[in-house]
Specification:
The chain is mainly α. It has helices at residues 47-50, 53-66, 99-106, 112-131, 186-190, 196-212, 224-233, 243-252, 263-270, 287-302, 373-405, 409-434, 436-456, 460-488, 492-523, 526-547, 561-584, 589-609, 625-638, 649-670, 677-696, 701-724, 732-749, 756-776, and strands at residues 2-3, 11-12, 15-23, 27-33, 39-45, 77-81, 88-92, 144-146, 151-153. The protein is 56% helix and 5% strand.
C-alpha cells in the first residue's frame, strides 16, 4: 500500500481513507475504515466510465447482484453508492497479497498440493458467484488474494458493467479491450455471449499460472493479435502442470464451453477430505509464503498515514510480474506487445476536477463533509419546523376565518393539500436542478407572501388562493430542507444527529403550531397568526440566502417530463380521491375509485423510473426492501394525524415535547450504534398501540399522547434516514419528494373511514405490517 497524496479525498461515503492500495482497470482502490473501525477496500470508478449512463445502470445492477454473493472464499461487498458523481463500492478487506505477486515476485510456482487447494477454493467461490446470477468475467491472478487460510476472489461481477462501453463485444469502436489478455476465454476473444463456463476457462488459466509461473498462450511474448488467435484456436501448453492436475486443467481449457466441467465438478475433483487439503507441513501453503503473509499483516498493523503532501513514489516494474494492460479498457495496437507492468498501477484519482472557487462548499473533495453543513442543518430544521407550525396554524385558524368569510374550513385545508401534491415532485426536480439553497429560499419567500395574503384576505376566493399558495410553497420548502439534510450528512454519527433534529421538527412542529396559533386566537385574531408566520418566513428566507452553502450539482439533471406529469397526476388524483372520500365517507364509490386510480398511476410512475434514462428517483430507491418499508411506515405514521386536532392543545404540546426529547436524546445518540430497525420497530409498535387506545376512547388523551410523541421520536429519524439513504446528492431532491409523498397520502387516506375506531384499526394494521416487513428486510443501511 502507498501513502495518500494531496490529490486523494479524505473520505469516500462513510469511510475514512487511510492509504492507496493501487489502481485497477476501473479506477483507484483505497484502504478505508468505517466509524466502527472496520477496514474495507474502497474502489472508486474512473470518471471516464462514470459519465456513461449505460455503464452506471449496469454497474448498479452488477453491484446489487454482487451483494447477494454469500459464499466462502470471496470478498463480500459491504457498501456502495452507484449514484454518486464518481460511483464507488466497498468490499471486505482481505489482508494478503494477490496471486501474481506471490508467484512472480515472492515465491515462484506453487507446489502441487497448494494448486489443488487453490482449484478447490476458487471453484467454490465461483459456485457462489454463479448462484447469485453473476459471471466473474475477469478471473486472473491479481483478482485472487492469498491468505493464511485460503485464497479469496475479488471483483466478481463488476467487469460486466464495462461491456456497456463496448456493446457486449471484445472491442469498442475506439479499440478498447475488455478483459485481461493472459486470462480470457475463447468466447471473450470472439465477442460472444458469455456463460459461467467462461469463468471455468479462466480458472484453468489461473491454475496454469499458479503451477508453472507462465502465462497461458505466451501472452507476454507475442503481440495482441497473435495471442488472441492462440486463445481462440490453439491448444494450451500444459508443460509443468502436475500430472495429477493436468487432466482437470485440460478439461477447463476446452474450446467448447459445453464440454468444460462446472465449478461444482472442479471442486469435487480437487477435494481432499475434511482436513482441508494441507501439505506436508500441515498447511495449504509452504512455510516461506506463510511467513511472508505474516509480515504483510504486520505491515498493515504498523502502517501509519503520513501528512499528505507530495505524491507517493511509484514502485518500479518487476519484469517477473505477469504482463497486464494498465486497465481492461486500455487501447492497444494490433502489433504492440503487451508491456509488463505491476498488478496495480496507481493513476490520478478519477474524482479530481478543476479546483472550485474559494469559499464554496465544493472546496471539499467528494465524500468529504461540506463546510458549513451544521449551519445549513439549522436552517433546514428551522424551515421544516416553520412549515409544520405554519400549516398547523393555518388549520387552527381556518375555522375562525370561515366564520368571517363564510366558507367551510375543510375546503381551505383540502386546497392546501392539493397544492402541496401538485408541486411536490416538480419541487424535487427543481431542487436537483437549481440547488437546495435556491429552492429553499424561494419557497420560504413564497410562504411569507402566502400567509400575508391570507391575513389580508377579505373574501372566500382570496383565502382559497392564499391557502393554495401556502401548499405549493410548503412543498418546495419541505423538499429542499429534507434534501439538504440527506445530502450533506453521510457520516453515520453526524447523520444520526442531523436526522434527530430534523425529526424533532417534523414530528413536533405540528403540535407546536397548533398550540401557538391557539394562543394567538385567544389573545388576538386569526389574522395576527397569519402575519406572524409570514414575518418569520421572511426572516428565515434572508438567513437561508446568507448562511446556507449549497454544493453544486454533480451533473446536470435532465427532466423526465412524461414521468413528472405521470407522478404528479397520480399523487394529485390520489390525494383528491382520498380527500373526497374523507369528506363524504368511504361508502362513496366514485371517490374511492378515484383514489385507487391515483395509486395505480403512482405505481406506473415508479415503473417508469426504473426504465427511463433520466429518472427523478434512482432505480435502487424503488427496489431496496428497507426503503420501501420505511415509506410504508411513514404512511402509517401519517394516517391518524388529522384526528389529533380535536384534542386539547396542551396535550398536543406535551406530545410535541416528548417527540423532541426522544428524537434528539435517543434516536440521534443511538442511530449510528445500532441497527435502525432497533429504533423503528419499537416506535411503530408503540404508535400502533397508542392509536388503538386513543381512537377506542378507553383512556384519556393526556395518558396516550406523550407515548405517541415518544414513538414519533424513536421512529421518524431512522425512517427518514433509511428512506433517503444511499442516494447521491444529485437525486436528493427527487428522493426527498417521494419520501414526503408517503405521509401526505396517509394523512388524506384516514379521514374517510367510518369513525375513529376504524381509522385506528387501519393505522395499527399499517404500522405493524411495516414493522414486520422491516424485520424481514435486509439490514437498513443509511
Amino acid at each position: 500500500m502507498d501513502q495518500l497524496t494531496s490529490e486523494d479525498p479524505l473520505h469516500i461515503g462513510p469511510y475514512r481513507l487511510i492509504a492507496r492500495l493501487g489502481a485497477g482497470g476501473m479506477g483507484l482502490v483505497y484502504l478505508g475504515r468505517s466509524e466502527a473501525g472496520r477496514t474495507v477496500a474502497v474502489k472508486v470508478v474512473q470518471a471516464e466510465y462514470a459519465q456513461h449512463p449505460e455503464f452506471r445502470r449496469r454497474f448498479a445492477r452488477e453491484v446489487a447482484a454482487a451483494r447477494r454473493v454469500g459464499g466462502t472464499w470471496t470478498a463480500a461487498v459491504l457498501d456502495t453508492d452507484t449514484e454518486a458523481r464518481v460511483p464507488w463500492v466497498a468490499t471486505q478487506y482481505i489482508p494478503g497479497p494477490d496471486l501474481s505477486s506471490v508467484v512472480a515476485r515472492d515465491f515462484g510456482p506453487l507446489p502441487e498440493h497448494s494448486v489443488r487447494v487453490l482449484a478447490d477454493r476458487l471453484a467454490t467461490a465461483l459456485e457462489s458467484v454463479h448462484a447469485a446470477g453473476l459471471i466473474h468475467r475477469d478471473l486472473k491472478p491479481s483478482n485472487v488474494l492469498v491468505t493464511v487460510d485460503g485464497p479469496r476472489v475479488i471483483d466478481f461481477g463488476i467487469a460486466r458493467a464495462m461491456d456497456s462501453l463496448a456493446g457486449d463485444s471484445l472491442h469498442t469502436r475506439t479499440g478498447m479491450l475488455i478483459g485481461s489478455p493472459g486470462f480470457m476465454s475463447p468466447e471473450q476473444v470472439r465477442g460472444l455471449d458469455l456463460t459461467p463456463a467462461s469463468d471455468v476457462f479462466c480458472l484453468g488459466a489461473v491454475l496454469v499460472y499458479a503451477a508453472t509461473g507462465r502465462l497461458l498462450f505466451g501472452a507476454a511474448e507475442t503481440g495482441l493479435n497473435a495471442h488472441l488467435f492462440r486463445v481462440a484456436e490453439e491448444e494450451a501448453d500444459l508443460t509443468g502442470v502436475p500430472p495429477s492436475l493436468a487432466g482437470l486443467v485440460r478439461d477447463c481449457l476446452h474450446k467448447d464451453p459445453a464440454r468444460r466441467p462446472t465449478p461444482a465438478e472442479v471442486s469435487a475433483r480437487t477435494a481432499t477430505g475434511p482436513d482441508g487439503a494441507t501439505g506436508p507441513d500441515g498447511e495449504w501453503l509452504p512455510g516461506t509464503i506463510l511467513a511472508q503473509l505474516g509480515r504483510h499483516a504486520a505491515q498493515l498493523l504498523d502502517f501509519s498515514p503520513e501528512t499528505r503532501g507530495a505524491a507517493s513514489p511509484q514502485p518500479s516494474p518487476d519484469p517477473r510480474v505477469p504482463a497486464q494492460p494498465r486497465h481492461p479498457a486500455q487501447s492497444l495496437s494490433p502489433s504492440q506487445p503487451v508491456p509488463p507492468s505491476p498488478a496495480y498501477t496507481p493513476t490520478t484519482p478519477a474524482d479530481r476536477q478543476p479546483s472550485p472557487r474559494v469559499g464554496s462548499s465544493a472546496d471539499a473533495s467528494p465524500g468529504t463533509p461540506p463546510p458549513g453543513r451544521w449551519r445549513g442543518l439549522g436552517v433546514a430544521v428551522a424551515a421544516q419546523l416553520l412549515v409544520m407550525m405554519g400549516t398547523a396554524a393555518l388549520t387552527t385558524a381556518l375555522p375562525y376565518a370561515s366564520v368571517d368569510l363564510g366558507a367551510a374550513p375543510r375546503l381551505f385545508a383540502f386546497t392546501t393539500a392539493l397544492a402541496f401534491a401538485l408541486v411536490l415532485l416538480f419541487g424535487g426536480y427543481l431542487t436537483d436542478r437549481l440547488g437546495r439553497k435556491r429552492v429553499l429560499a424561494v419557497g420560504l419567500a413564497g410562504v411569507a407572501v402566502s400567509f400575508v395574503l391570507g391575513g389580508l384576505a377579505a373574501s372566500t376566493s382570496a383565502i382559497i388562493w392564499s391557502t393554495a399558495l401556502v401548499g405549493a410553497c410548503a412543498a418546495l420548502v419541505s423538499t429542499a430542507a429534507l434534501a439538504l439534510v440527506s445530502a450533506d450528512f453521510t457520516e453515520p454519527q453526524e447523520r444520526g444527529r442531523a436526522f434527530g433534529l430534523y425529526a424533532a421538527a417534523a414530528g413536533g412542529g405540528t403540535a407546536f403550531g397548533a398550540f401557538t396559533e391557539g394562543w394567538l386566537l385567544q389573545a388576538a385574531s386569526w389574522r395576527l397568526g397569519m402575519y406572524a408566520v409570514g414575518l418569520l418566513s421572511v426572516v428565515l428566507a434572508i438567513v437561508t440566502a446568507a448562511v446556507v452553502r449549497d454544493r453544486p450539482a454533480d451533473a446536470p439533471v435532465r427532466a423526465d417530463v412524461p414521468g413528472l406529469l405521470l407522478g404528479t397526476a397520480g399523487l394529485l388524483i390520489a390525494v383528491s380521491g382520498f380527500g373526497f372520500a374523507g369528506e363524504m365517507g368511504w361508502t362513496t364509490p366514485w371517490a374511492t375509485v378515484i383514489g385507487l386510480l391515483g395509486v395505480l398511476l403512482l405505481l406506473a410512475f415508479g415503473r417508469r423510473q426504473l426504465r427511463t434514462d433520466h429518472p427523478l428517483v434512482p432505480a435502487h430507491a424503488l427496489k431496496e426492501p428497507d426503503r420501501l418499508c420505511a415509506g410504508l411506515a411513514l404512511l402509517a405514521l401519517g394516517t391518524p394525524l388529522p384526528q389529533l386536532w380535536s384534542y386539547p392543545l396542551g396535550d398536543l404540546l406535551l406530545m410535541a415535547l416528548t417527540a423532541l426529547l426522544t428524537a434528539t436524546q435517543v434516536s440521534a445518540r443511538f442511530h449510528h450504534r445500532v441497527d435502525p430497525r432497533a429504533l423503528i420497530v419499537p416506535g411503530l409498535v408503540t404508535w400502533a398501540l397508542c392509536t388503538a387506545l386513543l381512537t377506542s376512547g378507553v383512556v384519556a388523551p393526556l395518558s396516550v399522547l406523550p407515548p405517541m410523541g415518544i414513538a414519533l421520536g424513536l421512529a421518524l429519524a431512522p425512517l427518514y434516514a433509511t428512506a433517503t439513504g444511499r442516494t447521491a446528492p444529485r437525486h436528493a431532491g427527487g428522493t426527498s419528494a417521494l419520501v414526503l409523498a408517503a405521509p401526505l397520502i396517509g394523512g388524506r387516506f384516514a379521514p374517510g373511514f367510518p369513525g375513529e375506531v376504524v381509522t385506528g384499526y387501519v393505522t395499527v394494521g399499517l404500522a405493524l405490517l411495516a414493522g414486520v416487513l422491516l424485520i424481514k428486510a435486509r439490514p437498513a443501511r443509511t
